[in-house]
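Researcher: Quick sanity check before group meeting.
Model: Go ahead. Protein one:
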Amino acid sequence: MRQWLSACWVVLCSSAVCAAELPETAVLNFKGSYGIPAEMTFKRNGDNYTVNASINVPLYKIRFESGGKIVNGNQLYPSYYRDKRNGKIYASAVFSGGKVTYGKAGEQKTDNVSGRVMDLFTLSWQMAFDNGRLPEPLHITNGKKIYPAGSVGKMGNGDTVIGGKTVQLNQFTVKRGDDSLYYAFAPDWGNIPTVIHYVDNGKRYVLNLRRAVVNGQEVTR
């Protein structure tokens, strides 16, 4: 097994998917729809974490920010989510005591929600660290709305090519309202999120991993 993996990131494998220990840092570079670059970072500091994702649409920078607590080693409990457009908050959500305050800037409201609420990027890391399982009950937010999450659909193995190498993937779908999220993870690289498909405002976004640095070590070479 790769030296970085055995030394920095312990992998516990099951017959279906591998669960990884939370890294200290991970920087994932993606190629998005129409060749648009995107980046997602995960950072851990004790029992706190942050997940940030940036999509550099020409003349329109989109940034998603979230963070919260780590419980029982691999369970992410978000406390906030922000959707920023050109540096300004477009929509956000704050989670506390079973209540969620969410909505577009200036149009927020508060609802009672049982279980956890996650944005789609935080959810990708949660699934990576917990054998593809979802917290129950679970709701998914884009800051503007709260959607009940359906069950995980396991799509089996697939593959993709990164840096000229064929990489095995474990594939899943998650129902979010009337849409579905698609996630693929690379078990040979500590199960990092490798492909993400989602829909927002009727537009489909496809993110394909091109480079990953985990705990300071590039793993996609």
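Researcher: Fine. The other one?
Model: Protein two, sequence then structure:
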Amino acid sequence: MDADLDALRAACDRALTGHGPVRAADLLATIPPDTAVDRYGSGGVVAELEAEVAGLLGMPAAVYLPSGTMAQQVALRVHADRRGRRTVVAHPQCHLFLHEGGALERVQGLIGRPVGDRARLLTRAELDGVAEAPAALVVELPQREIGGPLVGWDDLAAQAAWARERGAAAHLDGARLWEAAAGYGRPPAEVAALFDTVYVSFYKGIGALPGCCLAGPADVVAEVREWRGRMGGTLFGMWPGAASALTCLRRRLPLMPAYLERAREVAAAVRELPGVRVVPDPPDTPMLHLLLETTPEAFTAAVVRLAEGGLWTWQQAQTTSDPSVLKTELSVGDATLALSIEEIRSAVVALAGT
């Protein structure tokens, strides 16, 4: 069935989520033919991207890395080594704990300490339950695994202050900072200013080739750059991803408010449908989760019908603790904007079997 779905996806000319199906030709088109190449991450478009991201985030420096997993582990290791501490405090559903195979502990020798309820946002008050001296607090904006909600602005500032008051670093997992900034109605630099270091991704909401930047004080970034080399991340030529990131950042960062508006329009259009629940409602950022009362078999059948009509939705839905409910993640992008609200509503009706 997966091969059949792949063929259907390739034939679709419209998509419900993100910027549409990822196609090599589209990604290659984001690399200008006159791109200035780097050498082992030095010079060329890599340096141009690093300078632009540092400026956007209001940070003294930034370094380009091939993956967010590498960027965050290295940044946290630098913070921990400088403080002589090993504990990293974060929400139970953060990327570090869920999707990196225990690398924080097994590769970096750090200790992850989950704090708070896995189904809710972490609050400043919950941090008071941490008695040990942490190396760093990691805040993920938005909290993707629970639908993309944002910590309230005052509480966010208080969490960062809690870390600094205890001699710890405040680190932002800003894989979707571009979307979070739109949700707060503040420029990315104002959000980043609360933190010591910030990681931002380029292949998610920005839609570029894989890659990311880690921004912060010049001395911290210099150490991260050294660790990038030690971990095999300083490739001979890093220019394709950097050039794609620069192109897509300039194109799509200004569109984040429009993506957010469309996410809220989608929520308004589907929240009253039988068997459909929007999380969070209304969305805080240009992403949301749809909880659908349906079965995997009925969902897949609806995906196929919609794809045969030229609209791609999802390869599959995620299961939940309730066997009668499936979960999908809708990230709003160019493809979502290109559809009418009625087309989106009709697709959700079909997927929910209502």
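Researcher: One line on it for the slide.
Model: The longest strand covers residues 287-293.
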